[in-house]
């Protein structure tokens, strides 16, 4: 006897049964619709109402309504029911697909952190923490959200669960261009900051500068340092970088900013870089001690034989530093010239009179004093172009001096600034290369100084601070925000491993002559594999907080806030002002063509 064919197996009966059920699911509603629609048609055409005969109405409508016309029956009993059933089927299919997609998204949210998992970042916890951290809030019954912490976004899929970093957290955000780093992080942080705000940026039009300028001007004075005229801002301020360089440590820090702006971390340890930085440090110290403008060091670098810096150092008790400087000056000419040329390259931006005017005394401009700024509600915009060299060194030096002044003020005030200062270091790897920023992260949060360092990629940070430095910055950050556009496979895999695994039930079906058997097994898979992290949609971000599970966030860009229309108008006004200033500078005047005839 021949073996049974596959069609005779139980699976064949299942297939027939499913096919029969599918036919009934279409025919039954179609027949009932044909009877209902046919009766409606008959009523409208003056024909009598037929009794309930759905099968005849579908197959033989002319017998059910013999007095009705053929055309009206074709439309009423055939075409209309078919269209309705088709529309209902299509709608049901779309709803089912949407339901499955939402179920998939909900599953991802469930596998990621829930509101309970990140409770310390929820409103109740951040409000209680703010009350304990800020003495000025202890007697306040109602604390506004902006006084409790910095909004990062909403827990994905939940509009009522806002996720905020507290005023003792320090953050690193790695977000590719056009992934929401400015619209969803920098600008909202500025607008809601309760105290002074510092922002570094490499652009102005249509950015944080234009959007937040008017709003921050209502909170306090707005200071703008724009040495390379990104916003074409009028020079209404000047800052003295030598104010904190009257000690050897302070001069070394200032020289280090020129070094970091000129060479990558991998090159900062070679002989010429270190020697050039040392000479720069010694000359900066001499200029600071004698209360000279910083531009005087360019004359000393041009003429190494000038004994003025040596005499200043000796007169102020820095004999050892003077001896080191003298040893370099009187050393082999080839070595000395190489060292001095290296230092000249580092400080070359000071040769530009337009740039130097921002860091030398000006009669018609107010002096920016970091010590006063950190006790105010003012705003400081520090603007510089990518690859600005010495100009970006001045930006980094100014940001560093503000954070150091804030630290000193916090120590005098009992340990913390109240209100806290928010320092948004946007494009930090391009325009604000503070060499020891990873070390500063270890204590800034405990002083009420909240830095948010925004990078385009992890490798960008490695280029500036080296592998060890970037790892230290990443580890010291209590909040890490990862946006869309992560194309580094190694970093994506690292994030995937940090998020962790989850259990997945796998169903296996086997067939044999005796029938079908089903088995269920369990295995572990990554919650978010690297390819899913790379494909994060715009408007979402991963949040890693110390001691908590990773959470998926829906970002909250500023243009979705209730006052977005007002902010948009303010941004448009500021952008037009930048354009008008740029055109005015580009328009030739009579003096450009010589005296009039």
UniProtKB/TrEMBL annotation:
State any GO CC term: plasma membrane
Secretion signal, residue range per the UniProt entry: none
Q: Which residues form the TraD/TraG TraM recognition site domain?
A: 420-538
Q: Which InterPro entries match?
A: P-loop_NTPase, T4SS-coupling_protein, TraG-D_C
Subcellular localization is given as: Cell membrane
Which UniProt keyword terms apply here? Cell membrane, Membrane, Transmembrane, Transmembrane helix
* Residues annotated as transmembrane: 15-35, 75-97
UniProt cross-references to CDD domains, sorted A to Z:
TrwB_TraG_TraD_VirD4 (cd01127)
The protein's predominant localisation is: membrane
- Kindly indicate whether the keyword Hydrolase belongs to this entry: no
**Which membrane topology term applies here?**
Multi-pass membrane protein
Is-annotated flag, keyword Ligase?
A: no
Which Pfam families does the annotation name?
TraG-D_C
Concerning Gene3D superfamilies, the annotation shows: P-loop containing nucleotide triphosphate hydrolases
Quote the PANTHER family the UniProt record gives: CONJUGATIVE TRANSFER: DNA TRANSPORT
What name is this protein filed under?
TraM recognition domain-containing protein
Q: Which organism is it from?
A: Streptomyces tardus
